[in-house]
Amino acid sequence: MSDLSTNDLERQLRVWADDLALQVHDLRQQSTPVQELRPVAPHPRRVLVLVAVAALVLAGGLLLRAAEWRNEDATVASTSNGVVEVAYERVEYSQEANLACPTGTPAVRGFNRSTFESWADNIGRRWRNTVTYPDGTTRDLIALGSPTDLEATYDRGELRGADVGCPGVDGLDILISEPGQSGYFALNPGGDIMRSPDMAFTPTYKDLGEEVPGAHTDSTGRPADLWRETINGYLEVGTAHDQVPIVQTTDWYVDHETGEVIERSFSSEIAGIGTARSLLTRVDAGKRMVPQETFDSDGLNLVH
Amino acid sequence: MGDFEQFVRDAEAELTRALAGHLPLDEVADAVAEAMAFAWEHRAHVEQLDNACGYLFRVAQSRSRVRRAGLLPGPDEGRLPEVEPSLGPAMRGLPSQQRSAVWLVHGVGWTYAEAAEAMGISTSAVGTHVARGLSRLRQQMGVDVGV
Fold it and tell me: What percentage of chain A has pLDDT greater than the value 70?
């Protein structure tokens, strides 16, 4: 077995990062004509002034949303008397795949469905997730502090969602996996978590997607606006790093009145391999009064 | 941070290295330029940030959003004889959050807090991803090397 130490890996990663930065510099020096390193639609090279013009148009919307997200118009208030008002959301998650893996049909380890609940106390700066799996087991997370520099995180229970992909195949091993593995998750984090003075920029469907005109309904039949992001690219697959076309599509179904996401689907279609898809459907949401004990970390493990 | 031009000089190299681990190389320069344009338009806000680079990293990523395709080319054994060739496939095989965390902390040299802000997750989550990512790298590279 390799006896690579962290220092060895760190040193090699730094050397590699320096070399990639040098390659970027070399590419910039060769700025006309544009270098096509992969056969997709060309990404035109823009000078700073032109980018600033485009950014100015977008900036107006971003600045407006940033102001909305700051705490000057907080609508969630904590109370005493043992209860607290939170923003609550319950989301049904599912994932599926139809893949012709080079290594054969992969075994499914874990669940392809789960229910996510989130409670956000923005005034008290506390957030909780409970994920419930089909067999009744749960995992919990409580985060305290700020969205980006938490004072403490507590968790309990095992991550039991299945990873969807072709195990052992470089580039295909994990195509879809359960959300919320790295921390608090909610379908509408921009409206909840980021109502904070130290908010960092969080792109939303308006930044990433384009509205699809027409009347639309989500998978449950609810009327909604549809925003879509489509990315065409290539995966490097296997030890030979074969370039395989991939199309990734994210659809956000948005409540026309509130602007909140009620459903989000994500799919990866890989040429010659198949399709993997995930679906997040909000089934309940709103302001709720809950016991303060909702954010009690007793019985949970301190992560940091 | 008062002089914007100085900020650009200081931040550009760091942002380039960070984005080189997340975008195809031919997209990195444009992404950095977009981020700097955004910083210029919002300089009053950006100047107040403790970690402007992390913030602009997320801005740049949100503009690009190319997932996986063409990521982390190499390492080229001819250019980098001191880097094990198996590091590239091992890194590309990591789950995206682990790959990002390992790259930003150990490739770029950001602190856990700086990487957390760039990734939009908690500092503790960064630590978890780094630990799991390094463990997985050692495992993959150990399997590839003479076992």
Answer: 72
Which are the contacts of B84, defined by CB distance < 8 A and separation ≥ 6? A4, A12, B141, B145
- Interface pTM, i.e. ipTM: 0.82
Query: Residues, chain B, total?
Result: 147
Nearest to A24 by CA among B106, B33, B5: B33
C-alpha span between B115 and B112 (Å, rounded) = 5
Residue A202 pLDDT greater than 90, yes or no: no
Contact B58 A201 (CB under 8 A): yes
CA–CA separation, A162 and A174 (whole Å): 10
CB contact under 8 A, A19 and B129: no
Judged against a pLDDT cut of 90, whether residue A105 lies above it is answered with no
Q: What pLDDT, in 10s, does the model give residues B11-67?
A: 888 899 999 888 888 888 888 888 888 888 777 778 778 788 888 888 887 666 544
Judge whether A37 and A233 are in contact, CB under 8 Å: no
Distance from CA of A3 to the nearest CA of B (A): 8
User: What tokens does B131 get?
Assistant: 């630990």
Test A13 with B106 for CB contact under 8 angstroms: yes
Instruction: Count Cβ atoms below 10 Å from residue A42 Cβ, excluding itself.
Output: 11
pTM of the model: 0.53
Contacts of B127 in chain A (CB under 8 A): 304
Q: Which of A214, A99, A78 is nearest to A165 (CA)?
A: A99
- DSSP collapsed to 3 states, A99-145: ECCCCCCCCCCCECEEEEEEEEECCCCEEEEEEECCCCCEEEEEEEC
B25-41 and B52-64 helices cross at what angle (nearest 10)? 120
Q: What percent of chain A has pLDDT over 90?
A: 25
What's the confidence (pLDDT) of residue A3?
Answer: 55
